[in-house]
Amino acid sequence: MRFTSVRLTTGPRLHYIEQGDPRGEAIVFLHGWPDSWFSFSRVLPLLSGHYRVLAIDQRGFGDSDRPESGYAIPDLATDVVAFLDALAIERATLVGHSFGSFVARCAAIAQPDRITRLALIGTSFTASNPVMQELQAAMRELPDPIPVEFARDFQASTAYRPLPPEFFARLVAESLKLPARLWRLAIDRLLEYDDTGGLARVTAPTLLLWGDRDALFSRAEQDRLIAALPGARLTVYAETGHCPNWEQPEQVAADLSRFVQKSG
Questions:
Q1: CB within 8 A of 130, min separation 6: which ones?
Q2: d(CA 260, CA 211)
Q3: Chain segment 173-194, per-residue pLDDT in tens
Q4: To pair with 76 at 20 to 30 A between CA atoms, which of 63, 96, 100, 219?
Q5: For the range 68-71, what are the long-range contacts, defined as Cβ-Cβ under 8 Å and sequence gap of 24 or more?
Q6: Domain 2-262, what fold?
Q7: Which residues have CB under 8 Å from 257's CB, separation 6+?
Q8: Non-local CB neighbours of 54 within 8 Å, separated by 6+ positions
Q9: Domain residue extents for the chain
């Protein structure tokens, strides 16, 4: 696993990790809010070395640059395409978790010729629901910096299965790299984003991975998304929360590998 960064034509320098064959088929991982590449750290070691696997710290998150603007979902999707350009990757499979799933979807709508497949973990037909609106409102009351207790409680609330203590502690630490203003701004931009009218334009084969104990996005939302996305299919993880990539990494890696192979 190699840690490096690249300056995009869209402005920021993005930190990312890379593993596998530099000449292999590219798979790009996009984390959720308020995470970093580390969100996929339990999955990445389980993937075949034949692939070129890249996990990005998106603009503002993790160890990437934190410019004043550019945090709308379409801006972040533009960053993804600029990232592919910077690394001379013509086409890639995008794997997005939660917040990152909306970025992946946006990229697939805007640049269908660049996206081979979509794997969307813990996604929803729309991000704006009562649970997310309540979370958005709670952010208004928080001080700067974000209290460790809040970060810990939020991250714990998104998982249903127990997590390894060292892994969970690192998740919390990574989330606290995000400044308070971006905790607020990123969730505002997520909830204002609406791609429901464009989903029919997604041409990439799409896999939805969803835990049946997801506290943020319901099964009904998965069904609405399947109806809107051509060629999408759903894999349900029993007794699993919003973060299958944290909670069931072996199964997620196996399902992703099977998806890439069968839709190749």
A1: none
A2: 20
A3: 999 999 999 999 999 999 999 9
A4: 219
A5: 70/10, 70/11, 70/12, 71/182, 71/185, 71/186, 71/189
A6: Rossmann fold (3.40.50)
A7: 47, 48
A8: 16, 17, 18, 26, 27, 28, 29, 83, 87
A9: 2-262
